[in-house]
Write a structure and sequence with these properties.
Mean pLDDT: 81
Largest sheet: none
Structural class: mainly alpha
Strand content: under 5%
Low-confidence stretches: none
Shape: elongated
Order of helices and strands: HHH
Helix content: over 70%
């Protein structure tokens, strides 16, 4: 398990093209989820959720 975590960490730190694409997809998904939450929440609740 430790070796797998170390490999994953190394991939994330190295910022390979694949990881950059994954990072972009994750950021887009988070933005989408936050947009839906923003429509229903107060500003302070939205900020709290965004900071998580």
């Amino acid at each position: 398990m430790q070796n797998e975590l170390e490999r994953l960490y190394d991939m994330l730190v190295s910022q390979t093209d694949i990881m950059k694409n994954v990072d972009e997809l994750v950021e887009k998904q988070i933005a989408q989820e936050l947009l839906q939450f923003k429509e229903l929440a107060t500003w302070s609740d939205y900020e709290c959720e965004r900071d998580k």
